[in-house]
């Protein structure tokens, strides 16, 4: 399921988004799933919209920060009108390799992205102290400190879609897919106890904390919804 990607610096966020794109259900009419090489202006041109429309409809704070696997609305929500700045095709088309089509792809209908993620209930993956919180830009997840060898457990039931150490800066990494929308990631482990394709249960030990590719022992934990990073603290029990 994972393709071999030969890029010097591939961030964990990019891999998570790629996995989401590979494993999630088709998007419905009026939506578009971001592919490698896409830009917002390219998607806007392909769907005969303006960049401001897409920014407004998708509540984008940074139009340059769209990610592979992210689902975008490319048609007016609820019958709302487009602004007059919509880009029209002149027949010469977009230049080489555009991945967006001139109209939303005919795919089986679904509900599209929700204004707020469908709730998921997680348990804490490790017993420790949060030393860095999610901010959506510099930190795509939370960092939890504890002693080396502390058990790391699955925050929810799912399937292992990545187990390895091929991403520089993330050490021994596990990625679990929970459904068509959600992924969780567990980085810097000293040992992994599950393998790709294996089903795991909520609370099952999947790794032990370590400091691989880190200057201290910690677990870097991420939660992804439709390829986009969201604050895992909102799905975890209060402490």
Measured between the Cα atoms of the first and last residue, the distance is 37 Å
CATH homologous superfamily name of the domain at 129-235?
Glucose Permease (Domain IIA)
Percent of residues in helices comes to 10-25%
Radius of gyration: 19 Å
Largest sheet: 8 strands, antiparallel
Strand content: 15-25%
Number of strands: 13
Q: Count of DSSP helices?
A: 3
The backbone outline, from C-alpha atoms, is elongated
**What's the CATH C level of the domain at 129-235?**
Mainly Beta
Helix-strand pattern: HEHHEEEEEEEEEEEE
Which architecture of the domain at 129-235 per CATH?
Distorted Sandwich
**CATH third-level topology of the domain at 129-235:** Glucose Permease (Domain IIA)
Comma- or semicolon-separated keywords:
alpha+beta; single chain; LysM_dom_sf; Membrane-bound Lytic Murein Transglycosylase D, Chain A; three-stranded antiparallel sheet; metalloendopeptidase activity; Glucose Permease (Domain IIA); eight-stranded antiparallel sheet; signal; 239 residues
């Amino acid at each position: 399921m994972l393709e071999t990607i030969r890029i010097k610096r591939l961030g964990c966020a990019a891999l998570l988004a790629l996995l989401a794109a590979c494993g999630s259900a088709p998007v419905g009419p009026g939506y578009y799933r971001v592919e490698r090489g896409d830009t917002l202006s390219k998607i806007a041109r392909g769907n005969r919209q303006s960049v401001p429309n897409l920014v407004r409809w998708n509540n984008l704070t940074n139009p340059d920060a769209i990610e592979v696997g992210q689902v975008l609305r490319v048609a007016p929500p609820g019958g709302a009108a487009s602004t007059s700045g919509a880009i029209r095709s002149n027949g010469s088309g977009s230049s080489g390799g555009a991945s967006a089509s001139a109209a939303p792809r005919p795919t089986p209908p679904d509900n599209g992205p929700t204004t707020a993620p469908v709730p998921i209930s997680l348990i804490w993956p490790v017993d420790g102290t949060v030393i860095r919180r999610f901010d959506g830009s510099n930190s795509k997840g939370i960092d939890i400190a504890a002693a080396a060898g502390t058990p790391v457990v699955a925050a929810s039931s799912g399937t292992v879609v990545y187990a390895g150490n091929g991403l520089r800066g993330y050490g021994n990494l596990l990625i679990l897919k929970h459904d068509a929308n959600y992924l969780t990631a567990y980085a810097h482990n000293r040992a992994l106890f599950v393998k790709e394709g294996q089903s795991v249960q909520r609370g099952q030990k999947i790794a032990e904390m370590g400091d691989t590719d880190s200057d201290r022992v910690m677990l870097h934990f991420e939660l992804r919804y439709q390829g986009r990073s969201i604050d895992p603290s909102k799905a975890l029990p209060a402490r």
